[in-house]
Amino acid sequence: MLSYVDDSGGVTYWGRGEPDLALTAYAVRFLHDATEFAPVDPNVLDRARKWLFRQQKPDGSWIEHHWYASSPLEDAILTSYIAHILAVTGSSDPKDKNAGVDKAAIRRALDNVATATSNFTDPYLFASYGLAEMAGGQPKRADGVVAKLRAAAETERGASYWELQANTPFYGCGHAGRVETTALAVQLLNQTDEAQDRTLSNRRLEFLIEQKDRYGVWYSTQTTVNVIDALLLLASRETSGTQAPLRIAVNGTPQALSPTAAHVLGLQILDISSLAHPGNNTIEISGGNGTLGSAQTVADYYVRWNSPLAAPKSGPLKLGVTCDRTQLEVGAKGTCAVLAERIGSAGHGMMIAEIGIPPGVDVDREGLQKQISENGWDLSSFDVLPDRIVAYLWPRAGGTKFSLSFTTRMAIDAEAAPHTLFDYYNPDASVTIAPDRFTVVEP
Could you tell me the domains of the chain? Predict the structure, then answer.
């Protein structure tokens, strides 16, 4: 991470360009929390905090660079996010001469956001501001947004959640944004002493756990961090004890699981593929002495590319890949042109394009690096894997265009990896198109 710290003390996305406000704040939190587990240079942490304070506007706000139209709501969310982190990571040493100045700057920021909570109805803003006031030592000032959060809760199959109305400081939106908003609301409401908030805990916990993706996380890094923070708060309220062994049977065949300490984050993974069969399958779970928990089933399956199920579905993202030729001789050069676009929006945040390439080729890395230098932030970075190019994009209106070239090294007749585009901060928004088949012959 230190290689991404700018000379000014701020943190950049790629080790170049201007430091980013939200990213620097996140790095401050990371470095502060990491001190419990690893040696951290306090000067790096101090310089990052000072950089953030230097970027604060006279009215107390922090305003991020907007790619397109300005957004007062997103500015207020960013301000509350930074103020929260600065309050949590501030010095508790009474001899610290800067402590009073820092607290005054944080108070100025929160006073600014307090006005925004009256002008907007975004639950993410309410939760973020409330958490910042809690961290700043004035929980009573959060009473108003706590009441607004209770009123704004929505219900889905008996579970409670909160909807996001703007982008998060890390460009989260859509379903991932809803989950992150709910996690923040859970964190705030679990710090109150109201009985009504305690009784809703299970409903909120149920929603968060049900949103876990097939990889066992919550879509994006920021969403996952906030969900785990919420789960840790709820876990701290659980009574400790010894959990009786769980019993699992798949289609009537018992499976052995080891007893674990009672903990809401306990996890056991069981491969049941050898017990599954075509048609209906039954999984039975019992035991555990009524301990709160959840179960998730994940299945992999394949669909032929000529099946209607494999056709790209209409959605917010569009990907096009055109290769100049798929039949080449050994030593020949091939080029593929890529168009990545977010439909119906000027675009926010990073997208990742995975472009399949034939096996056994040398990729023109210098050509990609040149495009990075010439295209601004459209093409931010790339990784070369054996079967694909992973490109990190910050799209503009009209889409991002780039090309990749390769030189063949051996005779092959093979299908490349499929081409995929997905939103880095909202990975449920994605599109996949069929791969190209390449034939390379000896000259």
Answer: 56-236 (1.50.10.20), 246-290 (no CATH), 312-441 (2.60.40.690)
CA nearest to 10, candidates 51, 43, 44: 51
| C-alpha–C-alpha distance, residues 137 and 143, integer Å | 13
Q: How far apart are the C-alpha atoms of 4 and 26, rounded to whole Å?
A: 13
Is-contact 342 355, C-beta < 8 A? no
Burial letters 243-275, b for 16+ CB under 10 A, else e: beebebebeeeebebeeeebebeeeeeeeeeee
In sequence order, the β-bridge partners of residue 363 are 406
**Cα angle vertex 189, ends 183, 191, to 5°?**
110
Tens-digit pLDDT profile for residues 141-156: 999 999 999 999 998 8
Is the CA virtual torsion 149, 151, 152, 155 positive or negative? positive
Per residue in 337-362, pLDDT (tens digit) is 999 998 865 456 789 999 999 988 99
Arithmetic mean of pLDDT, 384-397: 89
| CB neighbour list of residue 215: distance below 8 Å, 6 or more residues apart | none
Give the pLDDT confidence score for residue 346 in this predicted structure: 46
What's the rounded mean pLDDT across residues 61-81? 85
CB 31 within 8 A of CB 44: yes
pLDDT at 366: 96
pTM: 0.85
How far is residue 224 from each of residues 79, 202, 213, 217, 292, measured CA to CA in Å? 21, 19, 10, 6, 20
